[in-house]
Structure formats: C-alpha cells, structure tokens
Design brief:
Elements lengths: L2 H7 L4 H11 L10 H8 L3 H13 L3 E4 L4 E4 L1 H12 L2 H17 L2 E7 L4 E7 L22 H9 L8 H10 L2 E3 L6 E10 L2 E11 L10 H16 L4 H5 L1
Antiparallel strand pairs: 1-2, 3-4, 3-7, 5-6, 6-7
Length: about 240
Amino acid sequence: MTSELRTSSAPVNQSVERAVRLLGLFSADEPELTLAQLTGRLGTSKATTHRYTLALRQVGLLRYDAGAAVYSLGPRIVELAATALAGLRIIKVAGPTMERLVDDVNETVVLSIWDGDAPVVVRVDDNTDRLVRIIVRTGARLPRSTSAQGKVFLAFGPNGDELSAVERSEIHEHRVAVNSQVVDGIRAIATPVFQGDELIAAMAVVGTSASVPDQPDSTVAKQLRTAAEALSAELGFSIDERSA
C-alpha cells in the first residue's frame, strides 16, 4: 500500500476539521460573525472557539475588529484562493472560448466548478460595452439544485437522483439545463464541460428572461453547447468519443 493511500484513509484530525468548519461559517451574506455566533454554530465551548480564533488570526486566516467585536476572513484567505484558482487549468484555457461566446451571444458567460456541495463561479466574462449588464460575482456559490449550473452537475454527476427522472432525461438529451427562478427576470442556461471522462465544469449564459430563450434548442443554447464542446475538446475530450 502506498503512503498516499494510507494517508487518504487516515481519520481527519479534529483540530483541522474544526478550523475548516469555523472558516466555512463565513459567507457573502454573513462576512462578519461574533464569538458567540461562532461558538453556537461550531458547537464547542466559548473558550475552545476563542482558542481556534486566536490560532487562525496568527496565521492570517481570520481577522478581528475589536471595535465591532466581530471576526471576518483574513487576507491570507485571498492569497490561498488566488493560488487555488491559478492551479485550475480550465480557468486559463476557457478564457478565449468564453470571450468568443460573449461576442456571439452578447450576454454574460459564466464558468462554474463543483466544490463538493454546490457550483462555485470561477470565471465571468461579459460585454463591457453594454449599457445594462448582469453582474455575476466570481467566488459566488450557486444553488445546488435550482440553478442551471447545479442542475448540470447533478444530471451528469453521481447525484442525479436529486432531479426528477424527466428533468434529468431532458438535460441529458439536450445537454442543456435552464433556470429562471434564482432571481426574477434573470435566466441562465448551462451545459457541461468535460476533461477526459470527468465532468469538470459547467458553462452558462446569463441574461434577462427577454434576451435568453428557455428552449434548449434555441440559437443561444446551440452556441453555448458548441463553445463548451470546443472547450472540452481542447481539454482532451471529444463529444463523439463520449457517445461511442
């Protein structure tokens, strides 16, 4: 047995697990939390939570505003996030494809990856010449089962039973998922991107309900699929090979 296999089967260190859980309590909706809030959600004593916050502050993963008595994620998080994103080859490779798609459809184009629980936006390209643009924030976590990107990951991943059999079948048939529910008046259509045999990302076109049709065989949907298939081929995947 290799050392890598032995390591992967080892139990998670409790201190590491708690530290990661504590950092995961912060979100875009709640970027600042008090010690009492952290303690309640972490399920430990106040003294234990305080000990973890001190350790995380020392390495720059947390910062503390004494005036407001709240904690927030520290600057080291930004550095680590940038390093992690730099390591995702698809973000660099997808750039030209997404830019061309923006020119073709004149809408915002979004690339998301699966973080184990939900889609996370890793790249956004849009037409800066438009008077009105839809802004999607890089790093945003999208709804797992109601966003177009989430539906793609569920339909082509191991958790397909979270979708209805009819919806899953339609997404497989058209290779497109549609969502018009996350934000009123906004519609997203998404399609899978593969690297080899692995579903690695979902590419989506985001626009208004008036400008992005909800038909999976619309011109916009076909342009999106063509772009994603070209990106998959560039990453080492052929649409014909997968269907063979």
